Structures are given as structure tokens and as C-alpha cells.
Amino acid sequence: MRHNPPRREPDDPVTPADAEVILGELASVFLKNHSPSSTSTEGSDRQLQADVDTDLPRRESLYKLLIEQIPAVVFIAYLDGGIGETYVSPQVETALGFTQEEWLEDPIRWYRQVHPDDKERWSVDAAKMFATGTSLRSSYRVIARDGRVVWFQCEIRMIRREDGRPWFIHGVGFDISDLKRTEEELQQYTAALHHLSSRLFRLQDEERRRIARELHDSLGQYLSALKINLDMLEQSGGPPDSRFYAETQELIQKCIAETRTLSHLLHPPLLDEMGFRSAAQWYVDGFAKRSGINVTLNIPAELERLPDPVEIALFRVLQETLTNVHRHSRSSAAEIQVVLGKSDVSLEVKDYGCGIPPSLLERFEQTGTGAGIGFAGMRERARELGGYFQIRSDDHGTSVSVTIPLGPRL
């Protein structure tokens, strides 16, 4: 006598204790029916096998049940007498709105329903499969009966006869429309983020320029006026405490110098007046003096004025990279190479320090994080202008390069 586990409704909760009872009862039945017994006879074994055969579905039914439970369209097409599908799973009706009979009555129904923009690619992929026997793996848009566009990820394999002639193909098409919609939304979201990032960089540069101008025109002028007043005071007879006066003069002179430096670092006027070449030379000279790092700058003599966005991007990459060299590399020297190509310009900054840990560099290359916001900002600046940004690093040093297109030059 068979013992069946207790039936439950789908919504009935199953506790770990319930699971132990249910699985224990199933296991006891399995072991009873399949373990050898010294008292069993050959007749009882045959009867048991007959009972099993009676209860189990036929093999063909199992295959059909399995195929029709797969969340995909499964098909088979024989090639002996041309191309004609002999089987398509009923999921085609759910996916595309065609019944199995409607789909099979037209030997090239699939090709007819492929999106017009994908027909050529599908034809090339299919021809390659028929000619070489390689499996076809690609995604295509298919037009449903009601006009919907359905994305399918197709996996198709061709089987040959023993003499090498094509016999039939079988394949499966997974509906990936939801995935594609999510992908498109993600692309739109990413594009929006890039647009926002570009706008933030422009606003940042404009704000730096404004603050630099304010420091120069406002605070710088006040300090200069104060310096003039002290000079006039000295000429009129001098203050009662000459030591205090001398210290005041020195502090004001330092304030003026620091204000000018801060203003130029925020946005060097040379960048607007003379271009990247002059601004880069000024910055490198000042950086080497402040940091004690020996910096070599190589800029081609033929480098003239570049578009403003390109010059700003190159200067900010140079500025950020040298700052990283000073803060993190422990390098005593750095080399800067600017190369002017036929249609682009590239900047490379190389140091001889300790390098970037491989785990951080790999994380940055994969996700854009892990190496600080400076690198992410440099990459975004390059991407905004259609260029690319690259980091190479080991325990002998780090090389940071950016290449920005300029368009063909005469």
C-alpha cells in the first residue's frame, strides 16, 4: 500500500518541523520500494515494476511536459527538403500571439516576423550556421501579431547526418524584452548621469574662474591697498614699534602672494590668455618648487591654442595627477609628455613611485570606484569630450594618460 505525504494548500506555511516530517515520509516510501529484501520474490518485484510503469507518464509525455514548462519558445526544423519547422512549443502563442498551427503553416514565418532592422544580421548569422555548422547565439527583435516588438535571445544548433549533409536545427528563444527595457532605461539613466556630470564640470570650472577673479579683484586689491598704506606710514616717519611693523609688512606680503597663487590655481589667467602650453609650464614650475619633486615637461613646439574645453580638461588632468603624485606616490621625479596627433592630443604623466594597489586599480577599471574621485573626474572629463582615460601602474610607478580628439587638422 502506497503512503502519500499529506497535501497542503499552496499558501499553507511549512515550518522546519513540517518539512522534516514530509521529507521523512517520502524517504521511507522510496527506501521501502527500492531497498533489497530477503523475503521479496521475483513475482512481487515484477508487480512493483508494473505498478511504477502504470503510474509514471510515458517518456514522450515527459519530454513534452518538460519542454512546455520552459519559459521559452522551443523549435525544431528539418532541412532535408528546404527549411520548414516541424515543431514549435505552445509558448509561441503567449510570446507572439500566433498559435502553433499558424506558426508552422508558414515555413518562413520566423523570418517574416523578424524586425526589419535585424533581418540582415539574422540572415548573415543563419547563413554562417548553415555553412560552417557553428551554433548561432544572438538576440533579435521579432514583431508579434499585435505589433509588439519582442526581444529574443536565440540559441540554435544544426545537426548533420553521418554523411555531413544538414539534417535539422533545433533551438530555443528566450523572451528578454524586460531585460532589454531595463537595459535601455539603464543606458538612458547613464546618459543622463554623464550629461549631469558634464554640466557639473562646466559649472565647477565657471565657479573656479569666478572665485579666482574675486580673489584677485577684491581681496587681492584690499591687501595691496593695505600694503600701500603701510609703505606710506613708513615714509611719514614710521610706526612706534619697527619690529612689529616689519612683521606686519611681511605677513601682508605673504597674504598677497598666497592670494595670487590660490587665484591662479583655481583658474590660471594664462589658460585664458596664452593657452594650455603657458599655463602648464607655469603650473609645473610652481609645483616643483612647492613639492620638491623634479618634474620634466615635454610639450611639442608646434602646439598652439586648442579649443577651450580641451585646454581646460588637459590642465585639470595635469593638476589632479601631479597632486596625486605628491600625495601618494612617494616619487622624487615625474615626467609629463604631451603629444599632438593628426586628429587628437594626448597627455601622459608618469611617476616612479610605489604604484597603485592592484585591487584598487581593478576596482576602478570595473566600477569607476576605489581610486578616489580624482581619477573618476579625469575619466569623465575625457569621456565628455569623446576621449579616453587610462591608468597603468605597478611597483615601479604609475602612468596616467588622457587622449582627446580634436578632429582632422590641415
In short:
With about 400 residues, this protein is α+β, with helices and mostly antiparallel strands.
Task: Estimate the strand proportion.
Answer: 15-25%
Mean pLDDT: 79
Q: Which class of secondary structure composition applies to the elements? A: alpha+beta
Q: In the CATH scheme, what's the topology name of the largest domain?
A: Heat Shock Protein 90
Number of structural domains: 4
Q: Pick out the low-confidence regions.
A: 36-41
> For the report, how would you describe the main beta sheet?
5 strands, antiparallel
- The termini sit apart by 94 Å
The multimeric state of the shown protein is single chain
Number of helices: 14
Output the keywords.
elongated, five-stranded antiparallel β-sheet, alpha+beta
What does this structure look like?
The protein has helices spanning 16-34, 42-55, 59-69, 91-96, 100-105, 109-113, 119-132, 177-235, 242-266, 269-273, 276-291, 308-329, 358-367, 373-384; strands at residues 73-78, 84-88, 136-143, 149-160, 166-175, 294-298, 333-340, 344-351, 388-394, 397-405. With 410 residues, it is α+β, with helices and mostly antiparallel strands. The chain folds into 4 domains: 1-56, no CATH class; 63-175, Beta-Lactamase; 195-267; 275-410, Histidine kinase-like ATPase, C-terminal domain (Heat Shock Protein 90, 2-Layer Sandwich), CATH 3.30.565. A 5-stranded antiparallel beta sheet has the order 2-1-5-4-3, with helices on both faces. α8 runs antiparallel to α9, α11 (276-291) runs parallel beside α12 and α12 (308-329) packs antiparallel against α14 (373-384). The longest helix is centred in the middle third of the chain and has 59 residues, at 177-235. The termini are far apart. Mean pLDDT is 79; it is low at 36-41.
